[in-house]
Design brief:
Length: 391
């Protein structure tokens, strides 16, 4: 009799262990306020998803400005989802195979994505680019989508990369530049409500104009190799301050057959794959890998050149930060990357550059005395309102 009682108890105990984890209702701002307290929890959040240039994030549906340096949760799909939406470009940091520090990959509870009709609508809406304007609109999505999202939250108390004598020795955070303290790995989505982003002001200004490609990139091997084209343009600017900044950015990428720890892939980077949180499969000169992904379907022509410049600046800032910039917040790193991205825009006689959300960042028709102020205003508004970053 005792034996049967114990066996029954074990079976009941096993059943309890297999029971689904309770789902916690919360908000984006509550999660951002105390991220570590939500690590590993299944949550239900009403939020608005933005798929931008190097953003794929959830902002609070009621109050997008939570009052923190990063006011959003990075969104990822489970590995193997093969979905269409995500950032147009991004870079993440990972310990290399030859990393010499102490590192233990986190254990995560698997999440299975419910590819329901709601999810397919959600994914399709976020993958649609804005196409009405004739100018270059980097990573501009047609819609943002408000929905009820259920998934597993992965969180760290501090997403800042840890350094010792300038060298990266500790990893944390998620998404682009590992800058987000919290990531939601999506299980299901419901109550999908799209809102078309208003690009009417920038479209009205740029209507009928096209990007002018610089004559020196028209034809030849460098035209077929976007990295070579970017390096050639940087070299042509010479030793000027702008030229040196551009050379630093595009020089972050490996030259042909070089192994410098920067790994470039093409596609949509939208999945939370376990191998990206483990030791990498290749070595790096400083024991750190920089995994950079570009969605070439959304980066046509010179847009890929601009994306290379932007991501190169991120890599350079993370790998060898300028003095005093070692622990710079994400808003500073994004600001600097967009400033450097504007260099080839101006050097190539490009007429316009629009940022996601309809922020006109460059207009060659602006009076020269007003350009800096107009660019600074557009960039600050974009970083605050679209990228959900603050100081």
């Amino acid at each position: 009799m005792k034996r049967r009682f114990l066996l029954a108890g074990l079976v009941l105990g096993l059943g309890c262990g297999l029971r689904a984890q309770a789902v916690v209702d919360t908000t984006v701002c509550d999660v951002v306020k105390k991220p570590a307290s939500f690590d590993g929890k299944m949550v239900r959040i009403k939020g608005t998803v933005v798929a931008g240039f190097d953003e794929f994030v959830i902002k609070d549906a009621a109050d997008p400005n939570c009052g923190y340096p990063v006011n959003a949760i990075w969104l990822s799909y489970p590995a193997g989802s093969k979905a269409k939406s995500g950032p147009v470009a991004m870079v993440t940091v990972q310990p290399a195979k030859n990393f010499t520090g102490t590192y233990k990959a986190p254990a995560r509870t698997p999440v299975m994505l419910d590819k329901s009709k709601d999810f397919k609508q959600f994914d399709s809406l976020l993958a649609q680019p804005h196409q009405k304007g004739a100018d270059m609109c980097l990573g501009c999505a047609r819609y943002e989508v408000t929905a009820t999202l259920v998934g597993r939250l992965d969180a760290v108390a501090d997403a800042t990369l840890k350094r010792d004598a300038g060298k990266i020795v500790g990893f944390g955070g998620f998404g682009n530049m590992n800058a987000y303290p919290v990531r939601l790995v999506l299980e299901s989505v419901a109550d999908v409500t799209p809102k078309e982003v208003d690009y009417s002001k920038s479209d009205a200004i740029t209507k009928g104009d096209a990007v002018i490609a610089p004559p020196q990139t028209m034809g030849g091997p460098e035209f077929d190799d976007p990295f070579a084209a970017a390096q050639k343009m940087a070299a042509q600017l010479g030793s000027s301050p702008a030229g040196e900044e551009l050379q630093r950015a595009v020089g972050a990428f490996p030259k042909q057959r070089e192994q410098n720890g920067v790994v470039v892939t093409f596609g949509v980077s939208n999945e939370a794959a376990a191998q990206t949180e483990e030791l990498g499969t290749r070595d790096s000169p400083d024991g750190v890998l920089f995994n950079c992904t570009f969605n070439r379907d959304r980066l046509q022509g010179d847009a890929l050149n601009r994306a290379i410049t932007h991501m190169g600046e991120h890599i350079a800032d993370l790998r060898n930060p300028k003095a005093g910039n070692e622990d710079a917040p994400a808003i500073i790193l994004e600001n600097d990357a967009w400033v450097v991205t504007s260099i080839p825009v101006m050097a190539s006689r490009q007429k316009f550059l629009t940022l996601p959300g309809g922020y006109l960042f460059w207009n060659s028709g602006w009076p020269e005395a007003e350009r800096n102020d107009k660019m600074n205003t557009a960039l600050n508004d974009f970083l605050t309102n679209e990228a959900m970053l603050s100081r």
